[in-house]
Amino acid sequence: MLGRFFPPSRRPFASLSEAEILALAISSEEDDARIYLAYADQLREPYPQSAKVFEDMAEVEHTHRNMLIEMFRSRFGERIPLIRREHVSGFYDRKPDWLRASQTLDQIRSEAELMEQTAYNFYIEAVKHTGDASTRKLLGDLALAEQGHEDIALMLGEKHTPEGVRTAENDSARRQFVLTYVQPGLAGLMDGSVSTLAPIFAAAFATGDTWQTFLVGLSASIGAGISMGFTEAAHDDGKLSGRGSPIKRGLASGIMTALGGLGHALPYLIPDFWTATTIAALVVFVELWAIAFIQNKFMETPFLRAAFQVVLGGSLVLAAGILIGNG
Known about the structure:
Distance between the termini: 70 Å
CATH topology of the largest domain: Ferritin
Largest sheet: none
Radius of gyration: 28 Å
CATH superfamily of the largest domain: Ferritin, core subunit, four-helix bundle
Number of strands: 0
Strand content: under 5%
Order of helices and strands: HHHHHHHHHHHH
CATH class of the largest domain: Mainly Alpha
Mean pLDDT: 77
Low-confidence stretches: 1-7
């Protein structure tokens, strides 16, 4: 019963026998091969050349796994103990398939580099925890083999993803990020920042009540966020346009729309009217220039044109809200 609430801790690495260390190496090689194949499946359609890299790396892991099994059989017999990385303290936890599916190409590459480095560290540490000469030699050889994996990965990368291919894949990944997150998020930020200016500042100057102004801003921001999120998610499933998951785009658009409005609504939590209004105006200034910067960086819109469109348009909406509120 208590085990449900206080599960047993992982075993210290120093407590493993030589047979268990070798068994752990076998299971680790098997797991890494499966991870590389999962990466290959994930990348096959958008990045076929990188998928080939991970298929070949999985084959290398299978080869080393077979070598390890032969080593174990020659020293300890046919029965390999069941021990995995999650049973031993100090190991980096591998992400399950459903979490790895959301990784970008760069994140996958970084994860693979970390896997190779972790495997190398494992064998180096194993050498330190055994006094048997033959076992030390065995583990040292394995460490060298794992260190060689990085060279193999580089070699395979050069074979399947030469500079031109890698550049094209990086450009494709960046384009997908822009289409799925930046574009809908930027549209939401612009809509939330600009469309809520008039009602918030009109309410502020009409009532002079900071709390009522905050409620108007809160309702306008959340309402706009919900509307923009559902609109973005519903009007394009991403299959033909290649813009990615409608849920991701809807969330990006909806969240950024709400944040765009809340930015200049939150200052009205300050009781003093002119202090709140001054801070809100400063927030609007920062928001509009931030939008211009994002347009220039990700959408390749000339900065002066983006600044003119966004800042001028936002300023006109702000002025309209103040005039209406004073009317």
